[in-house]
Amino acid sequence: MKRNVKINLPVIGQCLLVVVLTALMVYFFRAHIATGERQHEQVSHLFDAKSIDAKLDKFALELSVGSLRHFDELQQLDRTLQQLVQRQQTRQAGIEYLAYLRLLRHKMVLMEQLKTQAVGMRNGLTYLPVVLDEMVASNHPQALLGSTILASLVTSGQSLDELLLDTRIRTLAQATVTEPEHALLSRRFVNHIQVAVDYYRQVRATRQEYLAINSKEAFARLYRAQMDLHGAQLRQTRTLSEQLFGLAVVLLLMLLFILQRLNKAKNRALQASQLLHDAIERLQEGFALYDSEGTLMLTNQCWLRHYGVACRTQFPQTLNEWQLRHAEFVHEQSDTPQRLQKTAHGRWLQIRHARTEDGGYVYISVDVTEFKEVEAELKTAAAVYQATQEGIMTTNANLEITAVNPAFTRITGYPEQEVLGKKPNLLSSGRHDKRFYEHMWHTLETKGEWAAEIWNRRKDGTIYPEWLAISAVEDEQGQVQQYIAVLSDMTERKEQEAKIAYQAMYDALTGLPNRRLLLDRICQDLKQIERQPHLSALLFIDLDRFKRINDTMGHDAGDNLLLEVANRLNHLVRRTDTLARFGGDEFVLLLSQISEVEDAAKVAEKILTSLAQPFNINGFEVISGASIGIAIMPDDANEQQEILRRADLAMYKAKESGRNQYHYFAPSMQQQVNRRVELEQLLRKAIANNELAVFYQPIIELQTGQLYGFEALTRWPHHDQFIAPDEFIPVAEESGLISELGEWMLMRSTSDIAALNTKLGLDCCLSANISSQQYRLGFNATTLRHILRQTGFKPANLALEITESILLDDDQAILAWLEGLRATGAHLSIDDFGTGYSSLSYLRRFPINTIKIDKSFIHEFAHAPDSQNLVRAILSMAASLGLSVIAEGVEHVAQLEGLKAMECDLVQGYVYAKPMSLEELEIWCSEFAQEHTQSLA
Amino acid sequence: MCIAAEPILPLHSVATDERKVALGRQLFFDTRLSRSNEVSCASCHQLATHGADKVPRSKGVAGRLGDVRAPTVYNSVFNIRQAWDGKAIDLKAQVTLPVENPKEFATTWPELIATLNEDKSFVSAFEQVYKGGLSSDAISDAIAHYERSLITLNAPFDLWLQGKGPLSEQAQEGYHLFKYYGCINCHQGKNVGGNMFAKMGTFGDYFGDRGTPIEPADYGRYNVTKREADKFTFKVPGLRLAARQAYFFHDGSEQSLEGAIDTMARYQLGRSLSKAELAAIAAFLESLVGHHQEMTP
Asked: What is the distance in angstroms between the Cα of B198 and the nearest Cα belonging to chain A?
């Protein structure tokens, strides 16, 4: 592999310079130290030499005075000097020092001579006194002369008058002696003294020579030279130091310069690196760079995002790790040249890679998920194109067919090869005129699309309706490139639409027009009345017993009944009339354009007669009957909803006034309705404001005359009078307010009587009315228990009064409800017994404790023997069933007596007391107790 | 008696390197130092007796006689210079003299080293001690070191001087005379001489009286310094082992100790000594002989 090695000459130059400067610094520094060391050594040698010089002088002095006993130390000095000289030879020394050493060596040589000479002199002198003694002892004639010579030698020392001495010695030597012994002594004396003198002279000469050596001056010179040298060295050192400092400064500056350049280069590199990072980071593609070792060097966020990794550390750091953890990131991989990968989080990536110059790899990932999706969509589109039920046809801008799909062929009968290149007008049915097509092209040009129902011709010549949608496909310049037509065969759809339209207007069961069509017809009729005034009647027909039939015989029977009713009615109406099924068991007949109001009554009578006939339903004979309300248009109302409502009201009136009747709408009915609405609002307010009150009417045990209990009665004081319960209770029941009202009443009354019982020491019972509506509105044993627990009233003392009507339904649910209430301990009482469909069977089936004979029987008691019989029958029946009986509405003593004779248990009525407020009741109770005690007494 | 005040001092050993001493001893006895391997240092410096030869003139290579009598190597370290004329400044410098002297080893350093180089163990032994291995300098140094170790210690006189032993009255008398007559002027110091030069024949003409012609060696120190005054001047020999010598003076002309003392008294002191005085001085000299492991007691 070829590598570009760039030689950075300036950098190398700088480095070299730094190295050279550093080397110079080191050299100077070492030279500096070496100078110091040399100086120290030189001074040390200097003083060694000086020390030798001084010792030499000392020895010289000792030698001359003869006080040196041996020469070992001198010899030692000689050796020291030798060593100094030897050392001097091994190093460079100054001329002055060499001169000084030479001088010292000369001194040493002289010292050697001096030693020899001094010893010689001493050897001569040593013997002289001995010889002189011998001369004196032997009476030597020259003994005296000898003594003077010796004396002058000893006394005068070195300043000996040599000439005189010589003369004396010569005299002694030349004096003639006769004795041979004297001659020997003379010779010895003279000989020794001559040797001594001779050596003395040598010593003096040597000493003079020694002393002539001006070693002090030599040393001073040497010292001066040394000091000069030292000074020079100091100066040199200072110069060196200055140069060193200069060098250091230059070096420092150089280093700073280089550092700055490095810093700049580093910044540039950093900038370049950031630029690169930024550029890579801004790539829309993922990017990863591995070095030749396979280590991840660089990635961008896009790469990490592609593999669903939040930060780089979570991604494999090497190619090996990537291989190992491959499955963690890649779920699918295609072997196609595109190298597609499906990542763990469902993205499709296309991966490309290339080798880098240093043997690493660079990877680029492109997210092709959308392409894949588009591809999939295209596949889907193609499949849809092939499989759709819609015929698809494309043309070019010249309206030549370019493609059709199988559905097209199926709808039109033309195979693809027959239509390619042809114009779409081959499908034209000829039913649409020129304007139709002009409009079509105009719409296409302006909006780019057009859709409409169109008649086309199949290959086989048949004409069929189709829904045709055309889109113009434009290129970027807005030029139409092609048209795409989607066509669907509407033959079937048209049929279905017709069916749906019919279903929308007609009742599915009876085939009669439904409520919607009825309203439409009424509306049309009303419009016609406006244009052409006439009378029309609306008959609201409600089957009387449909619910019971439906409930007891099943919905199937109900449906059959309705079908039969529709059938019978259909035979009674004209073609111009509209008989509609309004809902459930309600039918409405619109008699359009009747001549007079009575015509409606005639039709109503016919209908009642017809429907009064028994029906055969599922093999059973069923009698239904109907109630009819009649409203006249436009007299009663000129608005469809209103006229319907009024007919309905009239129907209810008919129902109220006994079944199998018809009733015309009257304005009083509307007033009644208005009154009820008003009452409901007032009642709602009264309940909210706690305006209602509970009154209590005592119940007396007839046989003993004792107080048995009270019936609670709701009272509504309003503007200084009471609104009758007969009036507001139905309103409460219809509006649902009865639920709230009933519970409030129960709560209040149990609370009141519990307090009264406690206060007066009584154990009185309480009767309270429960409406059948309360059952429907959710009042149950749980509610009752809750109330009793709250008020602390004894359940056994409570009797809930229900009306007979609720038992008529004979429902299991009702039974369960009543049994639940009974289970709380409360008693159940039938109110107004005898007014309804009193039946023994339900008295047996339901958990009833008490029956309350309706006051109408008691009123007629005195003068209607039937009533007495009825009451007697009720009493005996109750006795046989173990039920107690309360007679209410007892107003006269005669009635009381009659009932007493019939052994009626309990009575309630004005004969004892009218309903009272709690306060009044309390007083009444006290008085009654008093009277009772008195009567007993 | 105070030692410091005495002109003679007891001998003491000097510092040496044991390894160098060992090498030096090997060399000292090695005849390979001489051409044709005839003689070694020890041939003429017979350590068992007194470190010198038993003949007036030693025989070198091929029986050639030396110019002067071989002096003792014992205590030579204390000499001011080596050789009679003080030619060598010290022991190390002295080694070259016999090696190159045609009358002694009669060889050259290169030859000598070439010969020794053949002995590998010898060479390696040298390399262990000397950085440069076998060389003239190393050989000289080793021999010098060995010679430094040749010091005769614990002489009766030394012990007496230090108050550690007795000395005969005769020897004491001898020491007194030695000092009284002036012998001590030259023969002083720890080696009893050896530390100065003196003229042979201060009183009387020694060489004239000798009866033999004057040879170049007789000029002594003059041969080194060329000073007229140094003619017939020789290094004063140390007298530590004088009592054991067979021959005396540089020319080996005297054969007896007392004769040598008498000659010295006549020519150096200009007097004559009685027999008793000679015997006393001889007894004194006898007491100067110390001990060394190489020397037979």
From this structure: 5
